[in-house]
């Protein structure tokens, strides 16, 4: 008798998620084609190309400056460096040519799409199809997320890292009572998440590690000592990954200025100002605040699935660190949208008030996603 392995099947939920992510990619590509490279993006691309180059700078100095995100520079310079190899035998000559915006920005679109897929997987796993649809729909039509994914910046990279770090740690905590072979691979995955998040933003990695520690200690009360050991081992792996991103070049590591200073402890209102200036941001704030009211006044909604998304969404905007305007808000959005999806999933349950308001709640979810889509369309049309 032979046992057939269950094969991966694509059902309606996966198809709907794939369509939403395709729309997201199309929106990002439209923005890439119409938004010219800024000076900071050009500088990131040139610095990134020099990092990937095997040649040393004539001056022997590092292309990095204090506050640089090594993962941002690596991503911005990766495809231009590959293209330079292919053009090595080209007969064309140019004293200076600006980087190709497609090559510079495409890795950030990949990370934005990857984060969207992870967000849908987490929301659907916790809250079911309804929660996954609402969370992913709002994500794919979020103007702030679209801008962060279609331009060069550490915001979307750090958001991807923090989201993965937190939910990977929760996954590790859930398997601590199982045999070690079940959670050892996840421990390595957690180490990779810590290292890549630190490569995107050290402040984001510290925030994610603090949240991961709190969640693991809460979820595994009988295995707290083991949780600390796993976090220590994963952090050691993360340090190795961070050094690998620097190519074990301590000159670049020193030039990046990763150690905290007084600026890290200063909170600036520019984080919120930069977010509010993006079209549609007030709609996302309204959706989050409305769902927060439901969470406060409805006991049924106060469980770990919702709380695990709400706590980071409330804490991350206030986290100290050196940020570009609005960068820490991007970290928050993925958790905030999962929380909104979770609350809608609770309200859409047939058992809620006998299902009498299910249709009306579904209409509000559709209207919310449609309004977000309208704002994203305004953003895309304005870039043309």
Task: Explain this structure.
The chain is mostly helical and 384 residues long. The chain has a domain at 13-37 and 106-152 and 264-384. It is 71% helix and 0% strand. It contains 15 helices and no strands. Helix 7 (180-200) crosses helix 9 (224-245). The longest helix is centred in the N-terminal third of the chain and has 40 residues, at 101-140. The radius of gyration is 22 Å and the shape is globular.
How much of the sequence lies in strands comes to under 5%
Low-confidence stretches: 1-6
Number of helices: 15
Task: Tell me, briefly, the overall form.
Answer: globular
Largest sheet: none
Which features characterize this protein?
single chain, 384 residues, mainly alpha, 15 helices, globular
Write the layout of secondary structure elements.
Layout lengths: L11 H23 L4 H14 L17 H17 L14 H40 L2 H8 L3 H21 L5 H21 L1 H18 L4 H22 L4 H6 L14 H7 L4 H17 L6 H12 L11 H21 L10 H26 L1
Helix pairs in contact: 1-4, 1-5, 1-15, 2-3, 3-4, 4-5, 4-6, 4-14, 4-15, 6-7, 6-8, 6-14, 7-8, 7-9, 8-9, 12-14, 13-14
């Amino acid at each position: 008798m032979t046992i057939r392995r269950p094969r991966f099947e694509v059902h309606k939920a996966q198809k709907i998620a794939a369509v939403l992510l395709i729309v997201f990619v199309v929106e990002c590509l439209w923005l890439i084609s119409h938004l010219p490279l800024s000076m900071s993006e050009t500088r990131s691309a040139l610095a990134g190309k020099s990092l990937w180059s095997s040649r040393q700078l004539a001056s022997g100095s590092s292309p990095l400056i204090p506050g640089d995100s090594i993962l941002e520079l690596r991503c911005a310079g990766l495809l231009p460096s590959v293209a330079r190899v292919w053009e090595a035998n080209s007969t064309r000559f140019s004293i200076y040519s600006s980087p190709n915006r497609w090559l510079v920005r495409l890795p950030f679109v990949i990370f934005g799409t990857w984060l969207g897929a992870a967000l849908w997987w987490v929301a659907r796993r916790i809250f079911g199809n309804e929660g996954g649809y609402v969370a992913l729909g709002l994500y794919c039509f979020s103007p702030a997320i679209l801008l962060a994914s279609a331009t060069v910046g550490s915001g979307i990279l750090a958001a991807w890292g923090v989201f993965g770090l937190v939910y990977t740690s929760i996954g590790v905590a859930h398997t601590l009572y199982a045999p070690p072979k079940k959670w050892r691979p996840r421990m390595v995955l957690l180490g990779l998440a810590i290292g890549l998040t630190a490569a995107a933003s050290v402040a984001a990695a510290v925030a994610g590690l603090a949240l991961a520690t709190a969640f693991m200690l809460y979820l595994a009360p009988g295995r707290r000592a083991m949780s600390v050991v796993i976090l220590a081992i994963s952090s050691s792996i993360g340090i190795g990954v961070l050094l690998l991103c620097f190519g074990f070049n301590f000159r670049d590591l020193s030039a990046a200025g990763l150690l905290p200073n007084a600026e890290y402890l200063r909170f600036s209102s520019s984080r919120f100002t930069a977010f509010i200036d993006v079209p549609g941001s007030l709609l996302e704030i309204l959706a989050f605040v409305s769902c927060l009211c439901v969470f406060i006044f409805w006991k049924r909604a106060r469980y770990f699935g919702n709380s695990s998304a709400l706590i980071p969404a409330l804490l991350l905007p206030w986290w100290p660190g050196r940020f570009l305007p609005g960068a820490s808000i991007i970290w928050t959005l993925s958790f905030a949208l999962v929380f909104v999806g979770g609350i809608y999933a609770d309200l859409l349950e047939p058992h809620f008030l006998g299902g009498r308001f299910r249709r009306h709640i579904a209409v509000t979810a559709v209207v919310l996603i449609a309004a977000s889509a309208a704002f994203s369309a305004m953003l895309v049309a304005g870039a043309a």
